[in-house]
Amino acid sequence: MFSFEIIKQLQTHITSLRHQRTTIGFIPTMGALHAGHAALVQQAAHEGNQTVCSIFVNPTQFNDPRDLEKYPRTPHKDIALLAKVGCDVLFIPPVAEVYPENEVINRAFDFGHLDTVMEGAFRPGHFQGVAQVVSRLLDIVQPDILYMGQKDYQQTVIVKSMLQQLDSPVRLVRCPTLREADGLAMSSRNVRLTPDFRQKAPAVYQALLQAKTLADNGHSPSEIQQIALEKITNAGLKPEYFDLVDGETLLPIARFNDSKNIVACTAVWAGDVRLIDNIFLKGG
Ligand code: PAF
User: Among the atoms of ligand 1, which is closest to the Cα of residue 152?
Assistant: First the structure.
């Protein structure tokens, strides 16, 4: 695996790959990698791309400075994992390389309500920060395909909108969420769960699975929402929201017939760790 910290060196390497007429599959990450990230790299490789992965803990997407501070950082382990799963190129820049002091790198995107609902309501500014860094990384890497996980469903909708606003030729591929044996969605934040909350955390996925069963059996969205919030609370966790939304507009649905794609999305506090997860109730 080739590894670069400096944009120019990365770009020289990518240009040489382009001469070999290969497509570039890009996997942006913030490190603290797990099997879910590995699966993104493997999918990109399996689909015939040279794989480029970035590790960059982006300060502009953390609305809470304590969250940025506590974000797990495991660079040596990450590099070993990427090499093991056959990642071709790693880009691991310092902050000054992504946001140079003498350049203003801040495109403003208009996401309408997409960045004010759900995660956006609880993490103001978060998605502008995500769009800022993803657009910057796309400018640097110039990939053909961008691979992102479904666990951050709203993020994938935001990035899709960002690509449209930029009129970008990059294709976004949304990859399935990887789960632990007990159903907990894999996340870099899981390492921060105490043993007690690690035991309680699978209740999030159980609530999502129950929501799917209830939806298949004709329960209304508002009934499902209430049952799910109770289930999560009864498990000793603190839900922030459990919303049933249209898969494209992210607006809450009142009836299942109103949308082709319906996703149940939730954010839950497990102690001082915030977990998010989702499931398609219809379409997908
Ligand atoms: O999902 C993440 O890890 C981050 O939001 C991303 C897409 C790498 C941007 O920093």
Answer: 1
pLDDT tens readout for residues 152-188? 999 999 999 999 999 999 999 999 999 999 999 999 9
Cα 157 to Cα 174: distance, rounded to the nearest angstrom: 10
Q: Evaluate: CB of 61 within 6 angstroms of ligand 1.
A: yes
**Residue with CA at minimum distance from ligand 1 atom 9:** 130
* Annotated catalytic residue, options 13, 19, 34, 37: 37
Protein residue whose Cα sits closest to atom 5 of ligand 1: 130
CA distance 137 to 99: 11
132 lines ligand 1 (CB under 6 A): no
CA of 226 to the centre of ligand 1 (A): 30
Reported confidence tier of residue 259, pLDDT bands at 50, 70, 90: very high
Q: How far apart are CA 266 and CA 207, in angstroms?
A: 10
The answer on pLDDT for 109 being more than 80 is yes
CA 151, 168, 280 angle in degrees (round to 5)? 25
Residues 6+ apart with CB under 8 A from 172: 145, 146, 148, 156, 159, 160, 163
Question: What pLDDT is stored for residue 21 in this prediction?
Answer: 83
Nearest-angstrom CA–CA distance, 59 and 163: 21
* Cα–Cα distance measured from residue 174 to residue 194, given in angstroms and rounded to the nearest whole number: 30
Query: Do 146 and 26 touch, CB atoms closer than 8 A?
Result: yes
Asked about 13 being catalytic, the answer comes back as no
For residue 178, give the DSSP letter. Answer: P
Please report the atom of ligand 1 found closest to the CA of residue 159.
7
How many angstroms separate the CA atoms of 173 and 150, rounded?
9
